[in-house]
Amino acid sequence: MMAPVEKVRVRVKELPLDELMHVTDSKYTLVVVAARRARQLLAGKVRLVDSRSDNPVSVALEEIRAGKIRIEEARPRSRT
Number of folded domains in the chain? Predict the structure, then answer.
C-alpha cells in the first residue's frame, strides 16, 4: 500500500522565468539548473541568499537571479 502523496505548492510566479533569461538563452537550461540546485538545498547545502521562501525551487531561482549561481554553457565536442 502506497503512502498518500503530499501536495506541494510552488510559488514560482513570484520569480517569472522571463526575468531570469539574462542568465541563459534557454528556459530548459534555467529550469534544469534550478532543479539541480533545489536538490542540493534539500540535501542540506547552505543557502546563498536570504529568502522568505521555504521552497527549495524558489530559493534556487532567487540564487540564480542574484548571480550566486553561474550557468556555464557546455561547449560542443569537436569530432576528431
Answer: 1
